[in-house]
Design brief:
The complex is a heterodimer of chains A (about 375) and B (about 325). Chain A contains 16 helices and 13 strands. Chain A is α/β, with parallel strands linked by helices. In chain A, strand 1 (about 35-45), helix 3 and strand 2 (about 65-70) form a beta-alpha-beta unit. Chain A has helices at about 5, 15-35, 45-55, 80-90, 110-115, 130-135, 155-165, 180-190, 200-210, 215-220, 230-245, 265-275, 305-310, 325-330, 355-360, 365-370; strands spanning about 35-45, 65-70, 95-100, 120-125, 140-150, 170-175, 195-200, 225, 250-255, 275-280, 280-285, 290, 295. Helix content of chain B is about 30%, strand content about 25%. Chain B has helices at about 15-25, 30-35, 65-80, 100-115, 170-180, 195-205, 220-230, 245-255, 275-285, and strands at about 40, 45-55, 60, 65, 80-95, 120-130, 135-145, 160-165, 210-215, 235-240, 270, 295-300, 305-310, 315-320. In chain B, the strands form three sheets. Chain B has a seven-stranded mixed beta sheet. A five-stranded mixed beta sheet of chain B has the order 1-2-7-5-6, with helices on one face. In chain B, helix 3 (about 65-80) packs parallel to helix 4. The longest helix of chain B is centred in the first third of the chain and has 18 residues, at about 100-115. Classes of the chains: A alpha/beta (about 375), B alpha+beta (about 325).
Chain lengths: ~375, ~325
């Protein structure tokens, strides 16, 4: 990949002139509204961008952001982090996962702590790197601890396909893939926060398509705009939402047209469908049980499923967060990080107590890291 | 969970806490508590420092562990306004290490010493069984002669101007890519180089230097935060003024890093009085090693002990000390 291609990822989408022009248009639309609008950005990537670029500082007084639950590491319950820890501590196991998982503490410690105690833990960029690790360590069981929303699921599926096609015998999977629409629906049903509109996740929608959000305008009368992660994308997305309100429209629109289509990536969807099925329930940290909100390996692939193979080693007793932690309220859109008494004192990114502080995509971590200058 | 993790060596928050709560607590004395790049001893005449080096890979784009081990210690001396003079060199070598590779490393140390006008005057060699160290560790300790007095992280005051000597994050980004075997940018290399020749010119030109620090582990974010804390001032930085190469920007985009937190090995931050800033900038730009120098910010009373990063479109945020291990994000 040349450096030319890299700059195309972001250049133009952070242009100060464009940003100022968009803010002016947003102000004009916001004035016409004559009421307050609460916009939930579902995805942690958006929360991160909003706080990093200070976009909340540019909003008119009647436009509010509510930070959503779209941070896969944040919502992974402690008992499942313990699974990763226990698997890693097996002497014949190499635990492989994505970078963000390494420092998240479970009840026994984090994978970083496990590594300090001699466990073999590797982080990778692409799940396919697991193939190389397995080849280099034929005497070990390599367990891929899979996390993420629809964005990362196809990569896990691609790895499974390789493992099956090539008959590789020392790779197993611990699946923690979750899906976006179900928690969005739960948030609206729970009515804990006033959500008038959604900024839809960018990369999830590249895979799943924007059509997965159709129910929100149709059944909940809540518009959705799928926007990219750059400042210009997010502002454009907000402008599109405000226009929907002012023009009395309510639908799913795509701002991130350079990557997202209504149908999504059909090849990836087919691959996911081949290996995965919905779990009836999955516990989300801070939120609780959400029906049909996660994936597991289909029964025919049970021989690859570390969760089933090591079931005796992996307790499922629910472990809750610190009593004073308000991550549940934050993930439900009912509170902001700064309202928590633990925030920045007992709970920091280097020793997080609650889920929103554990990953850099979490709302608390974003507030802590970039401060909340107003 | 009381054991050392990689985060304790990150040059950021955890690293700082370990040093404060363990080493400073037990070793406490006035000189150590100055917390400078190098200790000032001998009635202000000498600067004294030590550094250990471990890097994977040993040979990287823009340098090797030998060059790094001389630059690192000499730069710490230079940052205190001291001319590097005498160094010691201790090596711990893993059994099985190739002698030809070791010679290559020693030769690049020799070459770098010449640039600083310094010499190795004492040394030590240890060989340990395979697996006891990762190939080769080098420690260098150095003494320098202070040519400009009063440089200190505690010396910043209102209206001082902050200058960076070059584009930031190159060492950290390039080492990360090489270590992880990710090759997608041939133009990116470590900024590893000796800084004394640049500092010497600043001193000769009689620039009013307040503080100077090479932005190694923890990057520019760590240096600015330490200064803000130690001098009890606010540093406001104009984000768009900070030189960051296209390659480093690309790596940060892909992996979710912040260029401000990536290590540098030949790029330093300088605080000078407002009145001397234009002269300092012009001088730095006339030298090849610092031709990309920029004024990036100033000292204010805005948020004491904080570093504020301002965007060209009117928003701002705090630039925090990096924390945790450098890890790429999920998506």
């Amino acid at each position: 990949m040349g450096s030319l291609a890299l700059k195309d990822l972001y250049e133009g989408f952070r242009d100060p002139k464009t940003i100022r022009a968009l803010v002016r248009s947003i102000e004009t639309e916001a004035e016409k509204l004559k009421r307050d609008i609460h916009i939930m950005e579902v995805c942690g990537g958006h929360t991160h961008s909003i706080v990093k670029y200070g976009l909340h500082q540019l909003m008119p007084n009647n436009i509010h952001f509510i930070h959503g639950p779209g941070c896969p590491v944040c919502v992974l319950p402690k008992e499942r982090i313990d699974h990763a820890y226990r698997l890693a501590m097996q002497s014949d196991v190499i635990l492989v996962t994505l970078g963000d998982m390494i420092k998240v503490p479970g009840s026994k410690g984090s994978l970083q702590d496990a590594r300090a105690k001699g466990a073999e833990v590797r982080y990778i960029y692409s799940p396919l790197d697991t193939l190389r690790i397995a080849k280099e360590n034929p005497e070990k069981k390599v367990i891929f601890f899979a996390i993420g929303f629809e964005t990362t699921t196809p990569m896990t599926a691609a790895l499974i396909k390789h493992v099956i096609d090539e008959g590789i015998e020392n790779i197993l999977f611990h699946i923690n893939h979750i899906t976006v629409p179900e928690p969005m629906q739960l948030l609206l049903d729970a009515k804990r926060s006033k959500i008038d509109a959604f900024i839809g996740p960018s990369h999830v929608s590249v895979i799943s398509g924007a059509n997965i959000y159709k129910a929100f305008p149709e059944e909940y009368h809540t518009p959705v705009v799928v926007a990219g992660f750059e400042p210009v994308d997010i502002l454009e997305g907000i402008l599109m939402l405000l226009k929907q309100f002012n023009e009395k429209r309510c639908g799913v629109e795509i701002e991130y047209t350079r990557s997202v289509t209504p149908e999504g990536n059909l090849v990836a969807q087919k691959l996911i469908d081949r290996f995965f099925e919905k779990r009836t329930h999955f516990r989300w940290r801070g939120i609780g049980d959400i029906a049909q909100s996660a994936l597991q390996l289909r029964g025919e692939f049970a021989y690859l499923d570390a969760e089933r193979i090591y079931s005796e080693l992996l307790p499922n007793r629910e472990i809750d967060d610190h009593k004073q932690c308000i991550c549940g309220d934050i993930l439900m859109g009912a509170a902001k990080p700064v309202e928590c008494t633990l925030f920045g004192n007992a709970c920091t990114p280097s020793s997080p107590l609650g889920s929103c502080m554990v990953s850099s995509e979490g709302a608390c971590a974003a507030y802590y890291r970039y401060g909340n200058v107003r | 969970m009381k054991s050392i993790t990689l985060a304790h060596g990150n040059g950021g928050e955890e690293n700082g806490r370990l040093i404060e709560e363990l080493f400073y607590r037990h070793f406490q004395n006035k000189i150590l508590h100055q917390a400078e790049d190098a200790a000032v001893i001998g009635k202000g005449a000498l600067a004294f420092t030590t550094d250990s080096f471990t890097v994977t890979p040993l040979f990287f784009k823009g340098g090797d562990i030998g060059k790094l081990s001389i630059c690192g210690t000499c730069n710490d001396l230079a940052m205190m306004g001291a001319k590097p003079k005498y160094l010691t060199c201790a090596v711990i070598i893993e059994e099985g290490f190739e002698i030809s590779a070791l010679e290559k490393i020693v030769l690049s140390m020799k070459y770098e010493l010449e640039k600083n006008g310094a010499i190795i005057v004492s040394g030590d060699t240890k060989v340990v069984p395979k697996g006891s160290v990762d190939k080769l560790f080098i420690n260098t300790t150095g003494i320098g002669e202070i040519r400009y007095k009063g440089i200190s992280a505690n010396a910043l005051s209102l209206d001082d101007v902050i200058i960076v000597s070059g584009s930031i994050g190159r060492h950290g980004a390039s080492i990360f890519l090489e270590r992880e075997g990710m090759e997608f940018s041939t133009a990116l290399e470590s900024d590893c180089r000796s800084l004394w020749p640049v500092v010497e010119k600043l001193i000769e030109a009689d620039i009013d230097i307040k503080a100077m620090r090479d932005a190694t582990r923890g990057g520019v974010a760590a240096v600015l935060n330490e200064w803000a804390r130690q001098s009890d001032i606010c540093i406001e930085v104009e984000e768009e003024k900070v030189p960051i190469s296209r390659e480093v920007k690309g790596v940060c985009e892909l992996l979710g890093f912040e260029a401000f937190s990536l290590a540098n090995e030949g790029t330093f931050i300088l605080a000078v009085s407002a009145q001397d800033a234009p002269k300092a900038l012009e001088l730095l730009r006339s030298i090849e090693a610092s031709s990309m120098a920029e004024i990036i910010g100033e000292v204010t009373t805005g948020y004491p002990q904080k570093v504020l990063l301002k965007t060209p479109y009117g928003t701002s945020r705090f630039l925090e000390l990096p924390s945790g291990e450098l890890l790429p994000r999920i998506c």
